[in-house]
Amino acid sequence: MAATRFPLTLDLADETATTRFAEDIAACLAPGDVIALSGGLGVGKTTFARALIRALADDAELEVPSPTFTLAQSYASGPVPVTHFDLYRLSSPEELDELGLEEALATGAALIEWPERAEDELPPTRLTIAFAIAGDGRAATLSGSGDWQRRIAHSRHVRAFLDTTGFSGAARRYLQGDASSRTYERIRAGDRHAVLMDWPPAEAPAAGDRRGAYRARDVRAFVAVDEALRDAGLSAPAVLGADLDGGLLVLEDLGSTGIAVDGEPVAERYHAAIGVLATIHGEARPDTLPAPDGGTHRLPAYSADALAAELDLFLDWYVPHVTGAPAADAARQDFAALWADLTGQLAAAETSWVLLDYHSPNLLWLADRAGLARVGILDFQDMLTGPVAYDVVSLCQDARVTVPPALESSLVAAYVALRQADKGRFDDEAFAAVYAILGAQRATKILGAFARLADHTGKPRYLQHIPRLREYLKRSLAHPALTGYAQWYRRHLPPSA
Asked: Which PANTHER family match (predicted)?
C-alpha cells in the first residue's frame, strides 16, 4: 500500500495530475468531511475543487465557478453533496455560521479555500491540502487527523492497482454502493471502460449473527462464482484484473441497461431471465467451485436454519415499525413454530444454485448478445445451493419493480414449461407450493430488512417498496400451504400492514 504518513507531499506535474488527485480524494469523501485548501493565489486550489466536484457529479462540463463573491456554492448531485466555500472575503470567523457550514456538514462535505481566515472555527478532524508552485507544476502537501490517512492510503492503493491493470491514469467515477461494505466505480482510460469492485476483506461474522455465516466475505467468492456462471454460458462480467488480498477487482463493464425501464418490467427481458434460471436448474450443478487462489469455494446450503435466520428481521424491525411495539413473546413463539413447519416442508424440494438476489437491480439487458447471453448477471457472490423456486420468486416478485399478477403467472408458466420440456417429468403442483412458501419467506424477510434500513440506518427511501412487498405477500398467502401464516398475520398485525 502506498505510503501515507502525514505530512505527505505529492508532485502534480500538470492539470491532468491535479484532476486525477482530486478524483482519488472524491473516491473516499464522506458526509461530514471538511477539506481545507490552503495556499496563495494561482496555486491550484480552485482547479482541485472544480475537478473534485465534477468527479462527484460525473459531469466533466459542469460549471463550477469560484465562490469568491458568493462565499459558498452548493452542489447536490453525486453520492456526497458538497459545498464549496471561499473565505477570502470573510470579515470574521463567526460569519462561518451564517454561511451554513454546520448545515452543509449534516448531510454532505465541505471544500474550504482560505481556511486560515476561519481560525479555530473548523472541525479538528479536517484534511488540509496545502498547494504550492513547484517548477512548472504544483505540489500538494496533505495533513490531518481522524481516519484520513487510512482513507487516502486506500484510495492511493486503488490508483496504484489500476495502473497495473491497463487503466493507468484512468478517470474514476462513483457507480454505486449497496447494503454491504462493497463499493463500485466506473473507470475510463481513453476509449476503454470497466467497473472497479472495492470490497474490503471482512472479519468473521459477529457473534450471534446467524445470517453472516451464509454470506461471502471476500472477492475470492465472487471470482469463483463468476467463473462458474461464465463456464455455464451465462453473461457474468469477465474479471480483467484482481488484487485478491486487497479486495479489488476490475470487471468487464456490462453497461447500465436494465431488464426494467422507468420502473416498469419489460416482459421480453423478464422472460429471457426466466430462461436463464431454467438453464441453470436443468443440469446438476456442483456445490464446490475452484477458487482463484488455487483452493476451493464451497457454496453454503440454503438450509432451514438459514431461512429462519433471515426471518428474524421481520420480528425485530417490521413488527415494531407497523405496531409501535416489539413483537410479544407469544407471537414470536407461534411465528417460529409456523416457520419451522414451513421450512421443514422444503426438505424435499428440488435444489440447485441459488443466486439469492436475482431481480432487476442485478440484471442487465445486453441487446448486442444472443439468446440467454442477453441477460447480464451481477451481485452473485453470496450464491448458495437451495430450492430452485427461490430465484424464480426473486424475479417474479421483484422487490424493486412491481410485477403485475398476469406477468408473474406468465413467467412462472414459462419456467414450468421449460423445465417440463427439459426434464420430462416436473411436478408443477409441488413446485407451486414451494414457490408460495418461499414467496412468503422472501417478502417477510425483506419487509424486515427495509424497515431496518429506514428506521435504524436513516434510509427512508426503502419505505417506498413496502406496499409492493405487502401485495406480493398477499399473493403468496392465498396458497393453502400458507393458511397458518395468513392467520398469524391477521391476528398480530393491523389490517394496513
From this structure: TRNA THREONYLCARBAMOYLADENOSINE BIOSYNTHESIS PROTEIN TSAE (PTHR33540)
Compute the distance between CA of residue 210 and CA of residue 197 in angstroms, rounded to an integer. 26
* 268-309 pLDDT, tens digit each: 999 999 999 999 999 999 999 999 999 999 999 998 888 888
Q: Count, in order, helices (H) and strands (E) of the chain.
A: 15, 20
DSSP annotation of 383: -
What is d(CA 272, CA 279) in angstroms, rounded to the nearest whole number?
Answer: 11
Band (pLDDT 50/70/90 cuts) for residue 387 is very high
Pair type for strands 296-298 and 137-144: unpaired
Q: Is 276 exposed, middle or buried (0-12, 13-18, 19+ CB in 10 A)?
A: buried
Percent of the chain with pLDDT over 90: 83
Query: Domain extents for the chain?
Result: 8-163, 256-492
Contacts of 79 (CB under 8 A, 6+ apart): 56, 174, 177
Taking the model in full, what pTM does it have? 0.91
CB 318 within 8 A of CB 445: no
Which residue has better confidence, 95 or 43? 43
Cell numbers linked to 248: 479489488
C-alpha–C-alpha distance, residues 425 and 433, integer Å:
17
Q: Where do we find the cell 478532524?
A: 125
Beta strand pairing status for 288-290 and 171-177? unpaired
For the segment 175-223, what is each residue's pLDDT rounded down to a tens digit? 876 556 789 999 999 999 999 999 988 765 555 556 667 788 899 999 9
The DSSP H or E segment spanning 396 is helix 389-396
With beta carbons less than 8 A apart as the criterion, state whether 258 and 365 touch. yes
256-492 CATH pick, 3.40.50.2300, 3.40.710.10, 3.40.190.10, 3.90.1200.10: 3.90.1200.10
Question: Residue 98: which pLDDT band, with cuts at 50, 70 and 90?
Answer: confident
* Pairing state between β 264-265 and 72-75: unpaired
3-state helix, strand, coil in the chain (%, to 5): 45, 20, 35
| C-alpha–C-alpha distance, residues 337 and 6, integer Å | 58
**What are the φ/ψ torsions at residue 480 (nearest 5 degrees)?**
-55, -30
H helical segments located in 282-328: 304-313, 319-323
Distance CA 198, CA 249 (A): 7
